[in-house]
Design a protein that fits this description.
Length: 211
């Protein structure tokens, strides 16, 4: 593997995990995912405020959010009602290399950030299994990623995630607060042939149920 940097206990940063050719292959696979399961804009539970990030999923389960149902996993796209398409093979391989967990991921959340989108500090805690890490992969524009501890008030540090970079949240950092402060618009051209606004795609691979 390329170099790995432990930025907090259990939080590994792997710059350049996917080289340019692998990023292009992944974008090709994601175009098929999005053709089957289009991006949609979820809304926050209770307030109904729309996310600034558009989302879709692949895998047997997908993470969804809406005003009345809250945050949860479900097997179908909330707008089309269709099952999510399968997780592309190269993402299953990335999980094997990065998660070191003996069962496959069940959900791959695909987040699309237009240049002004951001993601507030949150913990990934809607899964029944916290033994598996969450594996994150970035494509397109660089993002300022912030990660702290398991308490919201714990000190945080931020790193820039560029196209092809991976982050793994496991061990003591599995339930760490993290978020995206901002996108550095125009910092990458890797999505330009597909998404006319550019921006950034983040993929998170998760184990949801206990094996
Ligand atoms: C993002 N990432 O990079 C948001 N979650 O756009 C996440 O929310 C995330 O990077 C769990 C594990 C790693 C992550
Ligand atoms: Fe997250």
């Amino acid at each position: 593997m390329t170099n790995q940097i432990e930025i907090a206990p259990g939080c590994r940063y792997v710059p350049g995990f996917f080289d340019r050719a692998a990023q292009e292959a992944l974008i090709g696979a994601l175009r098929d995912v999005v053709a089957a399961a289009p991006f949609y804009t979820p809304c926050m539970p209770r307030t109904g405020k729309p996310f600034s990030v558009a989302m879709t999923n692949c895998g047997p389960l997908g993470w969804v959010a809406d005003k009345d149902g809250g945050y949860r996993y479900q097997a179908t796209h909330p707008e089309t009602g269709e099952p999510w398409p399968p997780i592309p093979e190269m993402l299953l391989e990335a999980w094997e290399r990065l998660a070191a967990y003996p069962h496959p991921p069940e959900a791959c959340l695909v987040n699309y950030y237009r240049p002004n989108a951001k993601m507030g500090l949150h913990r990934d805690e809607d899964e029944a299994d916290f033994d598996a890490s969450v594996v994150s992969l970035s494509l397109g524009d660089t993002a300022v990623f912030r990660v702290g501890g398991t308490a919201r008030k714990a000190p945080t540090r931020s790193i820039r995630l560029a196209s092809g970079d991976a982050v793994v949240l496991g061990g003591e950092s599995r339930l760490a607060y993290h978020g995206i402060d901002r996108i550095l618009a125009g910092s990458s051209t890797s999505l330009a042939g597909w998404l006319p606004d550019g921006g950034r795609i983040n993929l998170t691979l998760r184990r949801v149920t206990r094996p």
